[in-house]
Amino acid sequence: xxxxxxxxxxxxxxxxxxxxxxxxxxxxxxxxxxxxxxxxxxxxxxxxxxxxxxxxxxxxxxxxxxxxxxxxxxxxxxxxxxxxxxxxxxxxxxxxxxxxxxxxxxxx
Length: 108
Prior knowledge:
Arc Repressor Mutant, subunit A; 2 strands
């Protein structure tokens, strides 16, 4: 399962639309839609019920949301840990610049 597919799904679910998720991720709405479609193909189920005005999570989507948020929380902890290790070892490495590197963004 591609983490970018999960990322697009989680943001679309949290924000309630592909358009808003695309703004948050700085990609096109079509890219969000394509990533979610690829995720659907990977898992063999639809995480959303869609109509013209809203997205609603299916039971599969609710379970996937738990997984997705856990995945990003773990990535945020890993990123912070790697940054601390790089700083304490005197390395010039820096943590990756990804949406999960700002864990406070999940609360908004």
